[in-house]
UniProtKB/TrEMBL annotation:
<dbReference type="InterPro" id="IPR005583">
    <property type="entry name" value="YaaA"/>
</dbReference>
<dbReference type="GO" id="GO:0033194">
    <property type="term" value="P:response to hydroperoxide"/>
</dbReference>
<dbReference type="GO" id="GO:0005829">
    <property type="term" value="C:cytosol"/>
</dbReference>
<dbReference type="Pfam" id="PF03883">
    <property type="entry name" value="H2O2_YaaD"/>
</dbReference>
<protein>
    <submittedName>
        <fullName>UPF0246 protein YaaA</fullName>
    </submittedName>
</protein>
């Protein structure tokens, strides 16, 4: 089982540490593309400030992030499990996982990124700003740039639980392995609405439950039904959609209120 996570906009900068070593990251064959993105991000960040801020979805108060982007090769790096600090990662709490679950996370989790392609929780990276929708100078879209390199590098032979937003799902989805996408809705008085921001918190909780499996066998689920059973055992109401030809399916988590 692979757990696919999005990056977080919120990141925690390490106070010290060696710079990133692209050849030491997971899937080092992606290093040439990573270097291209870093170079384009540097070019953008050193150019017109207003253009760079708009491209990266930043406000004037975030201009310091441009200086960091322009110097990524020399910025201190820390493990991705500590760098990413948004809502999903706060709830998943990779650092606070029990020892066995933490080892499993290192093997099972891939964090998709428009800059790195994918990284694992223990890969050392600097803080950066590079959303999936940003058009960097001289490069195609992140989806076009990463689709073939990720398809060649990543495994395509095991069940995938996809906890990413649509922008990051577009970068890579296995062609042959079954995929369980996690969607979250809120139901009140029989009416359902899509949960947006706080869905990240639920996805973080689900990822943690899949790694720990309190009260269960602790073995990874190997089927779509196994994932649904694990999530339901952790306390959520779940609904499975109809599978496609690869056996992929949407799992909807229903949060009932009122």
């Amino acid at each position: 089982m692979l757990l696919l996570l999005p990056p977080s906009e919120g990141k925690t900068a390490p106070k010290r540490g060696r710079p990133v070593d692209l050849d030491a990251l997971s899937f080092p064959e992606l290093a040439p593309v990573r270097r291209r993105v870093m170079a384009a991000l540097r070019e953008l960040s050193l150019g017109d400030e207003a253009v760079a801020l708009e491209t990266l979805g930043l406000g004037p108060r975030n201009a310091a992030e441009l200086a960091r982007n322009a110097d990524l090769e020399r910025q201190p790096a820390g493990i991705a499990a500590r760098i990413y600090s948004g809502v999903l990662f706060d709830r998943l709490d990779l650092i606070g996982l029990p020892t066995g679950a933490k080892r499993k996370a290192g093997r099972r989790i891939l964090i998709t990124s428009a800059l790195w392609g994918v990284v694992g929780p223990n890969d050392r990276i600097p803080v950066y700003r590079c959303p999936a929708g940003a058009r960097l100078p001289g490069l195609p879209t992140a989806t076009e740039l990463w689709r073939d390199p990720l398809r060649a590098a990543l495994p395509d032979d095991q069940l995938v639980v996809d906890l990413r937003s649509s922008a990051y799902r577009a970068l890579w989805t296995p062609a042959n392995a079954p995929v369980v996408t996690i969607d979250v809705v809120r139901e009140q008085a029989g009416r359902r609405t899509v949960v947006s921001h706080m869905a990240k918190a639920t996805r973080g909780d689900i990822a943690r439950a899949l790694l720990i499996d309190e009260g269960g066998s602790g073995r990874d689920p190997r089927t779509v039904d196994g994932v649904a059973e694990r999530v339901a055992r952790a306390g959520w109401t779940v609904e499975l959609g109809n599978p496609d030809r690869n056996g992929s399916v949407s799992l909807t988590v229903v949060e009932r209120t009122g």
